[in-house]
Amino acid sequence: MENFAEQPLLSAAAAERSSAASFKAEENDIKPINGPRDFFREFSVETRKLWYLAGPSIFMSICQYSLGAVTQLFAGHVSTVALAAVAVENSVIAGFSMGAMLGMGSALETLCGQAYGAGMIDMLGVYMQRSWVILNCTAILLVLFYIFASPFLKLIGQDAQISEAAGAFAIYMIPQLFAYAFNFPIAKFLQAQSKTMVMAAIAGAVLLLHTLLSWLLMIKLGMGLVGAAIALNASWLLIVLCQMAYIFSGACGRAWSGFSRGAFRNLWGFLRLSLASAVMLCLEVWYYMALILFAGYLKNAEIAVDALSICMNIVGWQVMIATGFNAATSVRVSNELGAAHPRTAKFSVVVVVIQSTIIGLVSSLVLVATHSQYPSLFSNSTEVRSLVDKLTPILATCIVINNIQPILSGVAIGAGWQAFVAYVNIACYYLIGMPTGLVMGFKLGLGVEGIWMGMMLGTLVQTLVLFVMLFKTNWSKEASAATQRIKQWGGEARRPKARDIEK
């Protein structure tokens, strides 16, 4: 790595930015913590900053995830085939595409977050437009995956009836693909400025409309999967249109100054960073997508897929809490590194890991206590409910692990470590977890429980590796690297003028 000793770090005044309306960032880095009193004082300060970002982000993530989950819930009351079709399309087809889109869009978490921390506010809109160009080109390529979803699912050995239904549903869901291409860059653009409250409000309103529309089309009018597709596409497109209206109204100040030709400059370099982010997150998303696929090879595949999809739904809802923390952590780390506050960045990681772990433990205890009641919310099938009940201990353990792992990934994105973490994911997920799951599930005859336990081992190992990385990180060096990255992508870091400080 280059020697950044000669590079001037950002001055304290460069960190005088807003956290979107509630509090002002510290003018100096956090002071050394010399005892419990200092720790709890700084813990309280960082908690307020964290929850100002994480609260709306968690709510937004849960609402957006719940769009698909609500559709799946209603599909479970249409038929077991409809439930399996929606589950496979959400997990495999849409899951594959969402992983690619979200991953590529996550490059903005590094660039926008660090640029905002350094006062380069006018670059945020240009970064978002570059990401729009790249993600929409990617969406055009992914359309082929949707069109040929049915033969692809049959090719990899999925049940023929489920493959046909999921393939038809995938074609209906092509508009959602292009909504992803606009939504994920917009989300990172707004999150970097701590403008999460408006995204939460939009997501909450759309979820209410989506629930009503799904019930009307799928149950009341009996439109089944066609009704599910209409409701889901309309909801995602409405989210994008509302967010765009907010941005174009001038609410983001200098961060959005209109469409720019700069969006088409240095696309290749931007694409490389986007691909690194995509590979990192795709390896995580596709890993759990494979869990649903492997369940499709078991005897009585329909029951196994339905039960596992219900468990994955619950994990998904819980992970949305961690995802909200992920977004908040990424913003906090990238902003503080961009402003040359390495100790503050490090302490923010400690605070979020402690709080997310506590939430995961409480959620797991609630699930265990209600193990015989909650499965009936998702399915009318006695066999499916029985298998979900049997999987609850594994589900509870998975929730604890997955409440920590996304936080560490958020730190990696905020610091710009995507490429290295991609290699960690390959080793932990695909060389350890997946082979172990296949052996336990098929060779040892443990079925879906064995597959899940083995693959969960990969997640645990990856989480431990990321913990070691964080423990050994030189945060001052990361702050210097952030300064160099800002110069590479947006010019010299500069002292922001008074008009740059968001009100």
Automatic annotation (TrEMBL):
Which compartment or compartments is the protein found in? Membrane
GO biological process: any one? xenobiotic detoxification by transmembrane export across the plasma membrane
Bilayer topology: Multi-pass membrane protein
Grouped into one coarse class, the protein's main location is membrane
Instruction: Show the GO MF annotations.
Output: antiporter activity; xenobiotic transmembrane transporter activity
Residue ranges spanning the membrane: these are: 50-67, 133-153, 165-186, 198-219, 225-248, 269-295, 307-328, 349-371, 391-413, 420-439, 451-471
What Pfam families is this protein classified in? Answer: MatE
Q: What is this protein called?
A: Protein DETOXIFICATION
Q: Which organism encodes this protein?
A: Kalanchoe fedtschenkoi (Lavender scallops)
